[in-house]
Design a protein that fits this description.
This protein has about 240 residues and is of the alpha+beta class. The protein starts with 5 loop residues before the first helix and ends in a 33-residue tail after the last helix.
């Protein structure tokens, strides 16, 4: 490994550290929720809702912007110690919007009897689903692997890897293409694993009826400011 400052390694490994910290935090939340008592509840609102979500944007002055996204608004009522409470928090996992909105609404229509898990110390803190989404750890593992590959490439460098490979090839001049193809193959394999996982999860999605509201062709024209060659004598 190159003799670099510990600060350089810390900066390179920071994305992986953030992923692991977020995963550990959510895991602790799930473990705490497993000890929450349960009580019967009833869904009183089940519809889609448009909310403004803050997202990063390098082109903005503040470094962020607000993006409208659709959410499944599932509100339910439940009773704790004779007091009727309400909540619209569905699960422990974070909902960033535009994800399984129709499926969630179909799963929790108005009037559905549900089991509500609530925090005994703070009864207004409640959820209907207290497990993390399936496949989360697999996605985190793939993300961690991608980060490690990026860090490995940044620290060791393509030149070092090329030297290592060239010493083991009959034709050392083929080391760069071999390394490039290997990197491309690894990225393709990771991408294929993600698609395969998403396909497996999609097989368990619920099915609802729908109506096509619009079907047609749409034309898009991009205005390009092309420089026209000047005629002779023009400045």
């Amino acid at each position: 490994m190159p003799d670099l400052s510990w600060f350089v390694y810390a900066m390179l490994l920071a994305p992986l550290g953030l992923i692991l910290v977020a995963a550990a935090y959510k895991t602790l939340q799930v473990r705490a929720a497993r000890d929450w008592p349960s009580t019967p509840g009833k869904v009183v609102t089940s519809n889609s809702e448009l909310r403004e979500i803050k997202v990063l944007d390098d082109n903005s002055e503040n470094g962020h912007r607000f993006e409208p996204r659709n959410f499944a608004n599932i509100a339910y009522e439940y009773s704790v110690s004779g007091q009727t409470l309400s909540s619209n928090r569905l699960s422990i996992g974070e909902d960033r919007g535009n994800f399984q909105v129709a499926e969630t609404i179909a799963r929790y229509p108005v009037g559905t009897a549900v089991t509500v898990y609530y925090n005994s110390l703070h009864p207004r803190e409640a959820v209907l689903e207290r497990d993390l989404p399936k496949g989360l750890w697999g996605c985190l593992g793939i993300g961690a692997a991608i980060v490690l590959v990026i860090v490995f490439g940044a620290v060791i460098g393509l030149h070092r890897i090329s030297e290592f490979v060239s010493a083991r090839l009959a034709d050392p001049q083929m080391s760069v293409p071999v390394v490039a193809l290997a990197a491309f193959g690894l990225a393709a394999a990771l991408f294929a694993l993600v698609l395969r996982r998403q396909s497996a999860l999609a097989k368990n999605w619920p099915v609802v009826s729908g109506i096509i509201k619009l079907s047609g062709l749409e034309e898009y024209r991009a205005a390009l400011a092309a420089r026209q060659p000047k005629a002779d004598g023009e400045m």
